[in-house]
């Protein structure tokens, strides 16, 4: 079974942002040793407790300290940027680390309204242009210039093996956009209440091959390719895993209530945090929507997600109160499925 990692560089209690970013390197190295397929980093802006605002910078740092695991932006938030620059960045990474780079594209703002305004003057207009932005990016990735009949323009350096192209989303709209452009599709189950299997089915039924430029090796898929991204937390016992999940839930509630917490609370602190009856129901719902428990339980749940989505690959996002808890979770899951 193909397993991959989605990392947000969470800042643990007692950590500095530098230590959180170094922990991402450690996680990527562990994933490589265990046989995980990919290591993607998210893009978030001015969000308390998350250090990953520039995944493309981190990927170059991680690439220099790993040898084989694929590295990707999951996702670069395209409405904030010009497609040409995004192509240049990923072409540079693909030149440095041949046949290891993925460009994952999303359209979310990635942070507060203030952060969005600081990044882009016309974010909403750019969101409306997302289909055109995707097409422009793919033409540059395929080394076909900005548009049909335009003067030649390369996003240099043009690598021998272009980055794999993924569209990340949580809806049928994103599924159709990926299919129409012949892109691989990553469905974010961990952050969606939508009917994910239906969106993936739409993607498969609508998938179209696209015309590509001349490269030594094509990186866009010849058939539909799906990743389902799932929250997962594994520990030696189910009770410990639930305690770790409570830490993440309490952290999210604290942020929602404006109780600014830069780091995830430890287990003892999370257990003492009072939850209302409604919040307890939300916690139960969160647990049902993730892979949670001891190694055998998490194995079975991840296999069920894979079957439900008919996905070629499962990507895991894990938030826990300590680096050791996160590493152990990935280690235990890898021991069951890799």
From TrEMBL:
It holds the Pfam family Bac_luciferase. Residues 1-306 form the Luciferase-like domain. SUPFAM superfamilies: Bacterial luciferase-like. It comes from the Bacteria. Transmembrane segments: none annotated. Signal peptide: none annotated. One of its GO terms (cellular component) is cytosol. Gene3D superfamilies: Luciferase-like domain. GO terms for molecular function: oxidoreductase activity, acting on paired donors, with incorporation or reduction of molecular oxygen. PANTHER family: LUCIFERASE-LIKE MONOOXYGENASE (PTHR30137). NCBIfam families: oxido_grp_1 (TIGR03558). To bacterial alkanal monooxygenase alpha and beta chains. This is Luciferase family oxidoreductase, group 1. It comes from Alteribacillus iranensis.
